[in-house]
Structure to design on (649 residues):
Protein backbone atom coordinates (compact mmCIF):
# COMPACT_ATOMS: atom_id res chain seq x y z
CA UNK A 1 0.00 0.00 0.00
CA UNK A 2 1.39 3.41 -0.94
CA UNK A 3 0.76 6.33 1.42
CA UNK A 4 0.15 9.15 -1.05
CA UNK A 5 -0.45 11.99 1.39
CA UNK A 6 2.69 13.56 2.90
CA UNK A 7 1.54 15.99 5.63
CA UNK A 8 4.90 17.75 5.64
CA UNK A 9 4.59 18.78 1.98
CA UNK A 10 2.18 21.45 0.72
CA UNK A 11 -0.84 20.05 -1.09
CA UNK A 12 -1.41 21.11 -4.71
CA UNK A 13 -4.11 23.49 -3.47
CA UNK A 14 -1.53 25.22 -1.23
CA UNK A 15 0.98 25.83 -4.02
CA UNK A 16 1.55 29.21 -5.71
CA UNK A 17 0.40 29.86 -9.26
CA UNK A 18 2.63 30.49 -12.26
CA UNK A 19 1.97 33.64 -14.30
CA UNK A 20 2.30 32.87 -18.03
CA UNK A 21 4.94 34.99 -19.73
CA UNK A 22 5.86 35.58 -23.34
CA UNK A 23 2.66 37.28 -24.50
CA UNK A 24 -0.22 39.30 -23.11
CA UNK A 25 -2.58 37.12 -21.14
CA UNK A 26 -5.64 35.70 -22.87
CA UNK A 27 -9.11 36.08 -21.29
CA UNK A 28 -8.97 32.46 -20.18
CA UNK A 29 -5.55 32.91 -18.59
CA UNK A 30 -6.66 36.07 -16.83
CA UNK A 31 -9.72 34.34 -15.39
CA UNK A 32 -7.60 31.37 -14.29
CA UNK A 33 -5.31 33.66 -12.27
CA UNK A 34 -8.32 34.58 -10.13
CA UNK A 35 -7.79 31.22 -8.42
CA UNK A 36 -4.24 31.96 -7.28
CA UNK A 37 -3.21 32.28 -3.66
CA UNK A 38 0.27 33.57 -4.44
CA UNK A 39 1.67 34.46 -7.86
CA UNK A 40 5.01 32.66 -8.34
CA UNK A 41 8.05 34.90 -8.36
CA UNK A 42 10.26 34.38 -11.45
CA UNK A 43 13.70 32.97 -10.76
CA UNK A 44 15.29 34.91 -13.64
CA UNK A 45 15.54 38.66 -12.93
CA UNK A 46 15.23 39.28 -16.67
CA UNK A 47 11.65 37.93 -16.56
CA UNK A 48 10.48 40.18 -13.76
CA UNK A 49 9.58 43.35 -15.70
CA UNK A 50 7.22 41.34 -17.93
CA UNK A 51 5.92 39.46 -14.86
CA UNK A 52 5.02 42.72 -13.17
CA UNK A 53 3.33 43.91 -16.37
CA UNK A 54 1.25 40.73 -16.50
CA UNK A 55 0.25 41.21 -12.83
CA UNK A 56 -0.92 44.73 -13.61
CA UNK A 57 -2.81 43.43 -16.63
CA UNK A 58 -4.58 40.82 -14.50
CA UNK A 59 -5.50 43.34 -11.81
CA UNK A 60 -7.02 45.81 -14.28
CA UNK A 61 -8.91 43.04 -16.03
CA UNK A 62 -10.18 41.51 -12.79
CA UNK A 63 -11.36 44.90 -11.52
CA UNK A 64 -13.35 45.34 -14.73
CA UNK A 65 -14.73 41.79 -14.83
CA UNK A 66 -15.92 41.95 -11.23
CA UNK A 67 -17.13 45.55 -11.33
CA UNK A 68 -14.85 46.44 -8.45
CA UNK A 69 -15.49 49.77 -6.72
CA UNK A 70 -13.82 49.39 -3.31
CA UNK A 71 -16.51 51.23 -1.37
CA UNK A 72 -16.22 48.85 1.58
CA UNK A 73 -12.68 50.11 2.11
CA UNK A 74 -13.90 53.70 2.22
CA UNK A 75 -15.87 53.06 5.42
CA UNK A 76 -14.13 55.18 8.07
CA UNK A 77 -15.09 52.73 10.84
CA UNK A 78 -13.22 49.93 9.03
CA UNK A 79 -10.13 51.85 7.96
CA UNK A 80 -8.12 50.34 10.81
CA UNK A 81 -8.09 46.93 9.09
CA UNK A 82 -5.69 48.13 6.38
CA UNK A 83 -3.07 48.67 9.09
CA UNK A 84 -3.82 45.58 11.17
CA UNK A 85 -0.48 43.84 10.71
CA UNK A 86 -0.47 41.58 13.77
CA UNK A 87 -3.45 39.71 15.10
CA UNK A 88 -3.36 37.02 17.78
CA UNK A 89 -5.81 34.19 18.12
CA UNK A 90 -6.25 33.76 21.86
CA UNK A 91 -8.34 31.33 23.90
CA UNK A 92 -10.37 33.37 26.38
CA UNK A 93 -8.94 31.27 29.17
CA UNK A 94 -5.28 31.50 28.15
CA UNK A 95 -3.44 31.87 31.45
CA UNK A 96 -1.86 35.09 30.22
CA UNK A 97 -5.35 36.51 29.73
CA UNK A 98 -7.20 34.95 32.65
CA UNK A 99 -6.08 34.24 36.22
CA UNK A 100 -7.57 31.07 37.66
CA UNK A 101 -6.26 32.09 41.08
CA UNK A 102 -7.82 35.57 41.03
CA UNK A 103 -10.86 34.67 38.90
CA UNK A 104 -10.43 37.68 36.64
CA UNK A 105 -9.25 38.63 33.18
CA UNK A 106 -5.67 39.90 33.05
CA UNK A 107 -5.39 41.72 29.70
CA UNK A 108 -2.61 43.89 31.11
CA UNK A 109 -0.43 40.79 31.50
CA UNK A 110 -1.31 39.48 28.04
CA UNK A 111 -0.62 42.83 26.37
CA UNK A 112 2.67 43.32 28.22
CA UNK A 113 3.91 39.95 26.98
CA UNK A 114 2.81 40.76 23.42
CA UNK A 115 4.51 44.15 23.54
CA UNK A 116 7.76 42.71 24.84
CA UNK A 117 8.01 39.81 22.40
CA UNK A 118 6.09 40.94 19.30
CA UNK A 119 6.06 44.72 19.49
CA UNK A 120 2.39 44.71 20.47
CA UNK A 121 -0.73 43.52 18.69
CA UNK A 122 -3.09 45.34 16.36
CA UNK A 123 -5.97 42.94 17.03
CA UNK A 124 -7.01 39.80 18.86
CA UNK A 125 -9.50 37.07 18.04
CA UNK A 126 -11.19 36.10 21.31
CA UNK A 127 -11.71 32.36 20.80
CA UNK A 128 -14.49 30.97 22.93
CA UNK A 129 -16.31 27.69 22.25
CA UNK A 130 -14.26 25.13 20.29
CA UNK A 131 -12.85 22.69 21.38
CA UNK A 132 -15.17 22.58 24.43
CA UNK A 133 -18.48 22.97 22.60
CA UNK A 134 -20.50 19.77 22.29
CA UNK A 135 -19.83 18.65 25.85
CA UNK A 136 -23.39 19.76 26.65
CA UNK A 137 -26.14 21.60 24.79
CA UNK A 138 -24.66 25.09 25.12
CA UNK A 139 -24.32 26.74 21.71
CA UNK A 140 -21.56 29.00 20.47
CA UNK A 141 -23.44 32.14 21.53
CA UNK A 142 -23.78 30.84 25.11
CA UNK A 143 -20.00 30.60 25.32
CA UNK A 144 -19.81 34.38 24.75
CA UNK A 145 -22.95 35.56 26.53
CA UNK A 146 -22.19 33.60 29.69
CA UNK A 147 -18.78 35.25 30.16
CA UNK A 148 -18.89 37.95 32.84
CA UNK A 149 -17.03 41.11 31.85
CA UNK A 150 -16.59 40.30 28.17
CA UNK A 151 -17.48 43.82 27.05
CA UNK A 152 -15.13 45.32 29.64
CA UNK A 153 -12.37 43.05 28.34
CA UNK A 154 -12.94 44.36 24.80
CA UNK A 155 -12.90 47.93 26.09
CA UNK A 156 -9.55 47.30 27.78
CA UNK A 157 -8.12 46.06 24.51
CA UNK A 158 -9.55 49.10 22.73
CA UNK A 159 -7.94 51.44 25.25
CA UNK A 160 -4.60 49.81 24.42
CA UNK A 161 -5.14 50.37 20.68
CA UNK A 162 -5.97 46.71 20.00
CA UNK A 163 -9.05 45.77 17.98
CA UNK A 164 -11.23 42.78 18.83
CA UNK A 165 -12.67 40.00 16.67
CA UNK A 166 -15.29 37.53 17.82
CA UNK A 167 -15.48 34.08 16.29
CA UNK A 168 -18.32 32.59 14.25
CA UNK A 169 -18.65 28.79 14.00
CA UNK A 170 -21.10 28.09 11.14
CA UNK A 171 -20.83 24.36 11.80
CA UNK A 172 -22.53 24.67 15.19
CA UNK A 173 -25.88 23.16 14.20
CA UNK A 174 -26.40 20.44 16.81
CA UNK A 175 -26.51 22.31 20.11
CA UNK A 176 -29.52 24.15 21.51
CA UNK A 177 -31.18 26.46 18.99
CA UNK A 178 -32.06 30.11 19.47
CA UNK A 179 -32.49 32.70 16.75
CA UNK A 180 -30.86 32.36 13.34
CA UNK A 181 -27.10 32.77 13.17
CA UNK A 182 -27.21 36.26 11.65
CA UNK A 183 -29.38 37.58 14.48
CA UNK A 184 -27.33 35.84 17.17
CA UNK A 185 -24.01 37.03 15.73
CA UNK A 186 -25.33 40.57 15.38
CA UNK A 187 -26.34 40.51 19.03
CA UNK A 188 -22.93 39.21 20.13
CA UNK A 189 -21.25 42.00 18.16
CA UNK A 190 -23.45 44.59 19.86
CA UNK A 191 -23.10 43.09 23.33
CA UNK A 192 -19.34 42.64 23.20
CA UNK A 193 -18.39 45.84 21.40
CA UNK A 194 -16.21 43.83 19.01
CA UNK A 195 -14.85 45.32 15.79
CA UNK A 196 -14.84 42.30 13.54
CA UNK A 197 -15.82 38.68 12.98
CA UNK A 198 -13.52 35.79 12.24
CA UNK A 199 -15.29 33.35 9.92
CA UNK A 200 -14.16 29.97 11.20
CA UNK A 201 -13.86 27.30 8.46
CA UNK A 202 -15.24 29.77 5.88
CA UNK A 203 -13.62 31.52 2.95
CA UNK A 204 -16.39 34.13 2.88
CA UNK A 205 -19.70 35.10 4.42
CA UNK A 206 -22.99 34.97 2.58
CA UNK A 207 -23.91 38.42 1.22
CA UNK A 208 -27.08 38.46 3.35
CA UNK A 209 -24.99 37.89 6.48
CA UNK A 210 -22.56 40.64 5.47
CA UNK A 211 -25.46 43.04 5.01
CA UNK A 212 -27.05 42.22 8.36
CA UNK A 213 -23.77 42.45 10.28
CA UNK A 214 -23.03 45.83 8.67
CA UNK A 215 -26.40 47.10 9.87
CA UNK A 216 -25.71 45.82 13.38
CA UNK A 217 -22.13 47.09 13.52
CA UNK A 218 -21.30 49.68 10.82
CA UNK A 219 -17.75 49.14 9.63
CA UNK A 220 -17.57 45.54 10.80
CA UNK A 221 -14.47 43.77 9.46
CA UNK A 222 -14.93 40.20 8.24
CA UNK A 223 -11.98 37.83 7.95
CA UNK A 224 -12.23 34.32 6.54
CA UNK A 225 -9.98 31.37 7.18
CA UNK A 226 -8.80 30.60 3.66
CA UNK A 227 -8.41 31.94 0.15
CA UNK A 228 -10.98 34.67 -0.42
CA UNK A 229 -12.65 34.62 -3.86
CA UNK A 230 -11.65 37.66 -5.89
CA UNK A 231 -15.22 38.91 -6.22
CA UNK A 232 -15.61 38.93 -2.41
CA UNK A 233 -12.56 41.09 -1.73
CA UNK A 234 -15.18 43.77 -2.29
CA UNK A 235 -16.90 43.20 1.07
CA UNK A 236 -14.28 41.39 3.21
CA UNK A 237 -11.61 43.76 4.52
CA UNK A 238 -9.24 40.99 5.58
CA UNK A 239 -8.46 37.31 5.03
CA UNK A 240 -6.13 34.65 6.32
CA UNK A 241 -3.30 33.51 4.09
CA UNK A 242 -3.44 30.14 5.81
CA UNK A 243 -1.23 27.35 4.50
CA UNK A 244 -0.15 29.49 1.53
CA UNK A 245 3.08 28.04 0.14
CA UNK A 246 5.37 30.59 -1.46
CA UNK A 247 7.73 30.06 -4.40
CA UNK A 248 11.53 29.82 -3.87
CA UNK A 249 11.77 33.37 -5.21
CA UNK A 250 9.08 35.10 -3.14
CA UNK A 251 5.85 35.84 -4.95
CA UNK A 252 2.92 38.24 -4.66
CA UNK A 253 -0.26 37.68 -2.66
CA UNK A 254 -3.15 37.82 -5.10
CA UNK A 255 -5.76 39.42 -2.82
CA UNK A 256 -3.49 42.21 -1.58
CA UNK A 257 -2.28 42.93 -5.11
CA UNK A 258 -5.92 43.26 -6.17
CA UNK A 259 -6.72 45.72 -3.35
CA UNK A 260 -3.84 47.24 -1.38
CA UNK A 261 -6.13 48.07 1.52
CA UNK A 262 -7.11 44.42 1.88
CA UNK A 263 -5.15 43.01 4.83
CA UNK A 264 -3.98 39.42 4.82
CA UNK A 265 -2.51 37.49 7.71
CA UNK A 266 -0.10 34.67 7.01
CA UNK A 267 -0.58 31.67 9.28
CA UNK A 268 0.78 28.14 9.45
CA UNK A 269 -0.47 27.07 12.82
CA UNK A 270 1.65 23.93 13.27
CA UNK A 271 4.96 25.22 11.90
CA UNK A 272 7.91 26.02 14.13
CA UNK A 273 9.82 28.02 11.52
CA UNK A 274 7.77 31.02 10.37
CA UNK A 275 10.44 32.47 8.08
CA UNK A 276 8.56 31.98 4.83
CA UNK A 277 5.36 33.52 6.20
CA UNK A 278 7.26 36.49 7.63
CA UNK A 279 9.21 37.07 4.44
CA UNK A 280 6.06 37.00 2.34
CA UNK A 281 4.27 39.37 4.72
CA UNK A 282 7.21 41.77 4.72
CA UNK A 283 7.57 41.81 0.93
CA UNK A 284 3.82 42.18 0.38
CA UNK A 285 3.18 44.78 3.04
CA UNK A 286 0.71 42.57 4.93
CA UNK A 287 0.57 40.91 8.33
CA UNK A 288 0.81 37.69 10.31
CA UNK A 289 -1.37 35.73 12.66
CA UNK A 290 0.51 35.24 15.92
CA UNK A 291 -0.98 32.00 17.22
CA UNK A 292 0.99 30.43 20.04
CA UNK A 293 -1.66 28.25 21.70
CA UNK A 294 -3.63 26.25 19.14
CA UNK A 295 -6.70 24.92 20.95
CA UNK A 296 -4.75 24.10 24.07
CA UNK A 297 -1.50 23.09 22.38
CA UNK A 298 1.63 25.20 22.85
CA UNK A 299 3.19 26.09 19.47
CA UNK A 300 5.14 29.13 20.63
CA UNK A 301 7.26 31.29 18.38
CA UNK A 302 11.07 31.26 18.52
CA UNK A 303 12.97 34.32 19.65
CA UNK A 304 14.14 34.85 16.07
CA UNK A 305 10.66 34.89 14.58
CA UNK A 306 9.24 37.04 17.38
CA UNK A 307 12.08 39.54 16.89
CA UNK A 308 11.36 39.61 13.15
CA UNK A 309 7.74 40.52 13.90
CA UNK A 310 8.90 43.33 16.22
CA UNK A 311 11.10 44.73 13.48
CA UNK A 312 8.41 44.41 10.82
CA UNK A 313 5.63 46.18 12.71
CA UNK A 314 7.95 48.99 13.78
CA UNK A 315 8.23 49.98 10.11
CA UNK A 316 4.77 48.90 8.94
CA UNK A 317 2.98 51.02 11.52
CA UNK A 318 5.19 54.03 10.95
CA UNK A 319 5.22 53.89 7.14
CA UNK A 320 1.69 52.63 6.59
CA UNK A 321 0.78 55.36 4.09
CA UNK A 322 3.82 54.54 1.98
CA UNK A 323 2.99 50.81 2.00
CA UNK A 324 -0.65 51.36 1.06
CA UNK A 325 -0.42 54.27 -1.36
CA UNK A 326 3.12 54.19 -2.71
CA UNK A 327 4.10 52.66 -6.03
CA UNK A 328 4.82 48.99 -5.24
CA UNK A 329 7.47 47.16 -7.23
CA UNK A 330 7.64 43.50 -6.17
CA UNK A 331 10.99 41.76 -6.71
CA UNK A 332 12.63 45.12 -7.29
CA UNK A 333 16.05 45.20 -9.01
CA UNK A 334 18.94 44.66 -6.59
CA UNK A 335 22.69 44.38 -6.94
CA UNK A 336 23.91 41.14 -8.55
CA UNK A 337 25.69 40.25 -5.31
CA UNK A 338 22.47 40.51 -3.30
CA UNK A 339 20.51 38.48 -5.86
CA UNK A 340 23.17 35.75 -5.80
CA UNK A 341 22.98 35.58 -2.00
CA UNK A 342 19.22 34.92 -2.00
CA UNK A 343 18.27 38.47 -1.03
CA UNK A 344 14.98 39.87 -2.40
CA UNK A 345 13.08 43.10 -1.90
CA UNK A 346 9.95 45.06 -2.65
CA UNK A 347 10.30 48.75 -3.45
CA UNK A 348 7.72 51.31 -2.31
CA UNK A 349 7.89 54.87 -3.69
CA UNK A 350 5.84 57.87 -2.60
CA UNK A 351 6.93 61.44 -3.25
CA UNK A 352 10.49 61.99 -2.07
CA UNK A 353 10.83 58.68 -0.29
CA UNK A 354 11.68 55.17 -1.43
CA UNK A 355 11.52 52.22 0.93
CA UNK A 356 12.88 48.74 0.31
CA UNK A 357 11.55 45.89 2.43
CA UNK A 358 14.30 43.28 2.18
CA UNK A 359 14.51 39.57 3.06
CA UNK A 360 17.39 37.12 3.17
CA UNK A 361 16.37 33.60 2.21
CA UNK A 362 19.89 32.33 2.85
CA UNK A 363 21.47 30.82 5.95
CA UNK A 364 24.31 33.35 6.11
CA UNK A 365 24.26 37.06 6.82
CA UNK A 366 24.54 39.18 3.71
CA UNK A 367 27.03 42.02 4.22
CA UNK A 368 27.24 43.50 0.72
CA UNK A 369 25.28 46.26 -0.99
CA UNK A 370 21.58 45.63 -1.61
CA UNK A 371 20.86 48.53 -3.95
CA UNK A 372 23.08 51.06 -5.69
CA UNK A 373 23.43 54.47 -4.07
CA UNK A 374 23.13 55.82 -0.54
CA UNK A 375 20.36 54.52 1.75
CA UNK A 376 19.42 54.71 5.41
CA UNK A 377 19.53 51.32 7.14
CA UNK A 378 16.43 51.66 9.34
CA UNK A 379 17.47 48.85 11.66
CA UNK A 380 21.14 49.93 11.73
CA UNK A 381 22.23 46.33 11.14
CA UNK A 382 24.80 46.95 8.43
CA UNK A 383 23.70 43.61 6.98
CA UNK A 384 20.68 41.55 6.02
CA UNK A 385 20.61 38.85 8.72
CA UNK A 386 20.39 35.20 7.73
CA UNK A 387 16.73 34.20 7.42
CA UNK A 388 15.90 37.73 8.53
CA UNK A 389 14.75 41.07 7.20
CA UNK A 390 16.06 44.56 6.58
CA UNK A 391 14.55 47.94 5.74
CA UNK A 392 16.30 50.56 3.60
CA UNK A 393 15.12 54.14 2.99
CA UNK A 394 16.23 56.65 0.41
CA UNK A 395 15.31 60.33 0.67
CA UNK A 396 15.47 62.41 -2.49
CA UNK A 397 18.26 64.99 -2.63
CA UNK A 398 17.27 68.14 -0.78
CA UNK A 399 14.07 66.59 0.60
CA UNK A 400 13.15 66.27 4.25
CA UNK A 401 13.21 62.93 5.99
CA UNK A 402 9.74 61.50 6.68
CA UNK A 403 8.25 62.49 10.03
CA UNK A 404 7.60 58.83 10.80
CA UNK A 405 11.31 57.98 10.72
CA UNK A 406 11.63 58.69 14.44
CA UNK A 407 8.96 56.06 15.16
CA UNK A 408 11.06 53.24 13.72
CA UNK A 409 12.99 51.50 16.45
CA UNK A 410 16.44 50.10 15.63
CA UNK A 411 15.50 46.70 17.02
CA UNK A 412 18.15 43.96 16.79
CA UNK A 413 17.80 40.69 14.93
CA UNK A 414 17.79 37.63 17.20
CA UNK A 415 19.28 34.51 15.56
CA UNK A 416 17.91 32.06 18.17
CA UNK A 417 15.51 29.84 16.20
CA UNK A 418 15.08 27.14 18.84
CA UNK A 419 11.55 26.07 19.69
CA UNK A 420 10.54 27.30 23.18
CA UNK A 421 9.22 24.08 24.65
CA UNK A 422 6.73 24.02 27.51
CA UNK A 423 5.82 21.08 29.71
CA UNK A 424 2.39 20.62 31.23
CA UNK A 425 2.70 19.84 34.92
CA UNK A 426 0.11 17.93 36.93
CA UNK A 427 -1.62 19.23 40.05
CA UNK A 428 -0.80 16.63 42.66
CA UNK A 429 -3.71 15.23 44.72
CA UNK A 430 -3.75 15.63 48.48
CA UNK A 431 -3.47 12.47 50.60
CA UNK A 432 -6.73 11.24 52.09
CA UNK A 433 -7.66 10.25 55.62
CA UNK A 434 -11.22 8.99 55.37
CA UNK A 435 -12.84 5.60 55.14
CA UNK A 436 -13.91 4.37 51.71
CA UNK A 437 -17.51 3.51 50.96
CA UNK A 438 -18.29 -0.15 51.55
CA UNK A 439 -18.82 -0.97 47.87
CA UNK A 440 -15.86 1.01 46.56
CA UNK A 441 -13.76 -0.70 43.90
CA UNK A 442 -10.28 -1.54 45.17
CA UNK A 443 -7.32 -0.83 42.91
CA UNK A 444 -4.21 -2.64 44.17
CA UNK A 445 -0.90 -0.98 44.89
CA UNK A 446 2.02 -1.46 42.57
CA UNK A 447 2.92 -0.83 38.94
CA UNK A 448 0.36 -0.66 36.18
CA UNK A 449 0.22 -0.22 32.41
CA UNK A 450 -2.84 1.10 30.59
CA UNK A 451 -3.92 1.54 27.01
CA UNK A 452 -5.91 4.75 26.62
CA UNK A 453 -8.15 5.33 23.62
CA UNK A 454 -8.96 8.80 22.36
CA UNK A 455 -9.88 10.73 19.24
CA UNK A 456 -7.12 12.63 17.44
CA UNK A 457 -8.17 16.26 17.87
CA UNK A 458 -6.24 19.50 17.53
CA UNK A 459 -6.11 19.63 21.34
CA UNK A 460 -3.53 16.86 21.49
CA UNK A 461 -3.33 15.01 24.79
CA UNK A 462 -0.75 15.39 27.55
CA UNK A 463 2.46 16.81 26.14
CA UNK A 464 3.49 18.34 22.84
CA UNK A 465 1.63 19.11 19.65
CA UNK A 466 -0.36 16.51 17.70
CA UNK A 467 1.12 17.95 14.49
CA UNK A 468 4.57 19.44 13.98
CA UNK A 469 5.46 21.31 10.78
CA UNK A 470 2.40 19.81 9.09
CA UNK A 471 0.34 21.71 6.58
CA UNK A 472 -3.41 21.30 6.86
CA UNK A 473 -4.11 18.16 8.92
CA UNK A 474 -6.76 16.12 7.16
CA UNK A 475 -8.24 12.65 7.66
CA UNK A 476 -6.76 10.14 8.25
CA UNK A 477 -4.59 12.46 10.36
CA UNK A 478 -7.50 14.30 12.01
CA UNK A 479 -10.34 13.00 14.19
CA UNK A 480 -9.02 9.46 13.87
CA UNK A 481 -9.09 6.78 16.57
CA UNK A 482 -5.81 6.67 18.49
CA UNK A 483 -4.22 5.03 21.50
CA UNK A 484 -1.51 5.93 23.96
CA UNK A 485 0.14 4.03 26.78
CA UNK A 486 0.03 5.17 30.39
CA UNK A 487 2.14 3.55 33.07
CA UNK A 488 2.85 4.27 36.70
CA UNK A 489 2.81 2.80 40.16
CA UNK A 490 0.44 3.23 43.08
CA UNK A 491 2.19 3.55 46.45
CA UNK A 492 -0.86 2.16 48.22
CA UNK A 493 -4.19 0.67 47.22
CA UNK A 494 -6.84 3.14 46.09
CA UNK A 495 -10.58 2.69 46.60
CA UNK A 496 -12.72 4.30 43.90
CA UNK A 497 -16.39 4.93 44.65
CA UNK A 498 -18.65 2.56 42.75
CA UNK A 499 -21.22 5.29 42.13
CA UNK A 500 -21.18 8.96 41.27
CA UNK A 501 -22.12 11.55 43.87
CA UNK A 502 -25.82 12.35 43.64
CA UNK A 503 -27.73 15.58 43.99
CA UNK A 504 -29.06 14.42 47.35
CA UNK A 505 -25.59 13.63 48.69
CA UNK A 506 -24.28 16.98 47.50
CA UNK A 507 -27.22 18.75 49.18
CA UNK A 508 -26.29 17.05 52.46
CA UNK A 509 -22.71 18.31 52.03
CA UNK A 510 -23.94 21.88 51.56
CA UNK A 511 -26.26 21.70 54.55
CA UNK A 512 -23.52 20.31 56.77
CA UNK A 513 -20.61 22.50 55.70
CA UNK A 514 -22.19 25.67 54.32
CA UNK A 515 -19.83 25.38 51.37
CA UNK A 516 -19.79 28.38 49.05
CA UNK A 517 -17.60 28.37 45.93
CA UNK A 518 -15.20 31.25 45.40
CA UNK A 519 -16.64 31.68 41.90
CA UNK A 520 -20.37 30.97 42.10
CA UNK A 521 -21.27 31.46 38.43
CA UNK A 522 -23.31 28.47 37.12
CA UNK A 523 -22.96 26.61 40.47
CA UNK A 524 -25.79 24.04 40.68
CA UNK A 525 -27.60 25.97 37.96
CA UNK A 526 -30.10 23.13 37.51
CA UNK A 527 -31.33 23.33 41.09
CA UNK A 528 -34.42 25.37 41.98
CA UNK A 529 -34.42 27.53 45.13
CA UNK A 530 -31.28 25.75 46.33
CA UNK A 531 -32.83 22.29 46.08
CA UNK A 532 -32.40 19.52 43.51
CA UNK A 533 -35.39 18.25 41.58
CA UNK A 534 -34.00 14.71 41.27
CA UNK A 535 -32.03 13.67 44.34
CA UNK A 536 -30.87 10.33 42.94
CA UNK A 537 -29.40 11.68 39.72
CA UNK A 538 -25.66 12.42 39.49
CA UNK A 539 -24.91 15.94 40.63
CA UNK A 540 -23.77 18.18 37.78
CA UNK A 541 -23.07 21.91 37.33
CA UNK A 542 -20.07 21.45 39.62
CA UNK A 543 -16.48 22.17 38.70
CA UNK A 544 -13.21 20.62 39.82
CA UNK A 545 -12.99 22.71 42.99
CA UNK A 546 -16.57 21.87 43.97
CA UNK A 547 -15.89 18.18 43.46
CA UNK A 548 -12.64 18.35 45.37
CA UNK A 549 -14.35 20.10 48.28
CA UNK A 550 -17.04 17.41 48.49
CA UNK A 551 -14.55 14.56 48.34
CA UNK A 552 -12.37 16.21 51.00
CA UNK A 553 -15.44 16.42 53.26
CA UNK A 554 -15.82 12.67 52.77
CA UNK A 555 -12.16 12.20 53.69
CA UNK A 556 -11.27 11.42 50.10
CA UNK A 557 -10.30 13.01 46.83
CA UNK A 558 -11.04 12.69 43.14
CA UNK A 559 -9.56 9.61 41.44
CA UNK A 560 -6.89 10.24 38.88
CA UNK A 561 -7.78 9.30 35.32
CA UNK A 562 -5.59 6.20 35.63
CA UNK A 563 -7.23 5.11 38.89
CA UNK A 564 -10.66 5.69 37.35
CA UNK A 565 -9.75 3.51 34.37
CA UNK A 566 -8.20 0.76 36.49
CA UNK A 567 -11.34 0.63 38.61
CA UNK A 568 -13.60 0.85 35.58
CA UNK A 569 -11.92 -2.02 33.82
CA UNK A 570 -12.86 -4.34 36.73
CA UNK A 571 -16.49 -3.82 35.77
CA UNK A 572 -17.30 -2.53 39.24
CA UNK A 573 -18.13 1.10 38.51
CA UNK A 574 -21.80 1.99 38.19
CA UNK A 575 -23.19 4.74 36.02
CA UNK A 576 -26.00 6.99 37.15
CA UNK A 577 -28.98 8.06 35.09
CA UNK A 578 -28.49 10.10 33.02
CA UNK A 579 -24.92 9.05 32.38
CA UNK A 580 -22.45 11.91 32.80
CA UNK A 581 -18.76 12.41 32.23
CA UNK A 582 -16.62 12.24 35.39
CA UNK A 583 -14.12 14.77 36.61
CA UNK A 584 -10.76 13.21 37.47
CA UNK A 585 -7.80 14.52 39.43
CA UNK A 586 -5.83 15.20 36.28
CA UNK A 587 -5.53 18.98 36.14
CA UNK A 588 -2.48 20.09 34.17
CA UNK A 589 -1.06 23.47 33.23
CA UNK A 590 1.78 24.51 30.96
CA UNK A 591 1.44 28.14 32.06
CA UNK A 592 -0.86 29.01 29.15
CA UNK A 593 -3.56 26.31 29.14
CA UNK A 594 -5.25 24.30 31.89
CA UNK A 595 -6.82 20.97 31.05
CA UNK A 596 -8.19 17.80 32.59
CA UNK A 597 -9.07 14.33 31.38
CA UNK A 598 -12.72 13.30 31.49
CA UNK A 599 -13.81 9.67 31.78
CA UNK A 600 -16.97 7.70 31.20
CA UNK A 601 -18.88 9.59 28.54
CA UNK A 602 -22.44 10.85 28.80
CA UNK A 603 -25.87 10.26 27.36
CA UNK A 604 -25.72 13.64 25.65
CA UNK A 605 -24.35 13.80 22.11
CA UNK A 606 -24.20 16.89 19.88
CA UNK A 607 -24.86 15.84 16.30
CA UNK A 608 -24.08 17.48 13.00
CA UNK A 609 -20.39 18.35 13.16
CA UNK A 610 -17.09 16.56 13.62
CA UNK A 611 -15.77 19.56 15.56
CA UNK A 612 -17.87 18.85 18.67
CA UNK A 613 -16.60 17.03 21.73
CA UNK A 614 -17.55 13.42 21.13
CA UNK A 615 -20.59 12.52 23.21
CA UNK A 616 -22.20 9.22 24.12
CA UNK A 617 -21.17 6.65 26.69
CA UNK A 618 -17.61 5.37 26.47
CA UNK A 619 -15.66 2.42 27.81
CA UNK A 620 -13.37 2.97 30.80
CA UNK A 621 -10.28 3.12 28.59
CA UNK A 622 -11.57 6.19 26.69
CA UNK A 623 -10.43 9.73 27.60
CA UNK A 624 -11.33 13.23 26.45
CA UNK A 625 -9.00 16.15 27.03
CA UNK A 626 -11.08 19.11 28.19
CA UNK A 627 -9.63 22.62 28.22
CA UNK A 628 -10.70 24.33 31.42
CA UNK A 629 -12.61 27.58 31.05
CA UNK A 630 -12.82 30.13 33.86
CA UNK A 631 -15.57 32.08 35.62
CA UNK A 632 -17.45 28.87 36.39
CA UNK A 633 -18.04 27.98 32.73
CA UNK A 634 -16.56 24.53 33.42
CA UNK A 635 -19.80 23.74 35.22
CA UNK A 636 -22.28 22.06 32.93
CA UNK A 637 -25.12 19.60 32.65
CA UNK A 638 -23.10 16.56 31.58
CA UNK A 639 -20.15 16.35 34.02
CA UNK A 640 -20.30 14.90 37.53
CA UNK A 641 -17.84 13.01 39.70
CA UNK A 642 -17.09 10.19 42.10
CA UNK A 643 -14.58 10.09 44.96
CA UNK A 644 -11.57 7.94 45.81
CA UNK A 645 -9.61 7.12 48.95
CA UNK A 646 -6.02 6.10 49.64
CA UNK A 647 -6.05 2.84 51.60
CA UNK A 648 -3.16 2.83 54.04
CA UNK A 649 -4.20 0.21 56.61
Amino acid sequence: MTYVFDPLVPRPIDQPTEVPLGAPLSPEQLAALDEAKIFVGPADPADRPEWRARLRQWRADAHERHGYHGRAYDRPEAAWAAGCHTVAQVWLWDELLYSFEEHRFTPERFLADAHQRFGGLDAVVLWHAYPVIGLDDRNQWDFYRDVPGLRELAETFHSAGTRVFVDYNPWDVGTRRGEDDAAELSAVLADSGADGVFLDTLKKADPALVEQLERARPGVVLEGESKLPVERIEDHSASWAQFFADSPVPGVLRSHWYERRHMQHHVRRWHRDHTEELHSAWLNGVGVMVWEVVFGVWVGWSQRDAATVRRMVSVQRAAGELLREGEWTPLAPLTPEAEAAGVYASRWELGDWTLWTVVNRGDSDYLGPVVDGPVIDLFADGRVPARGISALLRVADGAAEPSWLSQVATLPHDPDARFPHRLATRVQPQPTSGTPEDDAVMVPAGPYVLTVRYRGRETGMYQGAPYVDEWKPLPPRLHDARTLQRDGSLASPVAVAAAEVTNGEFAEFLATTGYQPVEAHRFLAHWADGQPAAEDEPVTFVDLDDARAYCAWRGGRLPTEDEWQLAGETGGLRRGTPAVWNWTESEHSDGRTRFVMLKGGSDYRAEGSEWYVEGGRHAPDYSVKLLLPGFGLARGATVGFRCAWDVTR
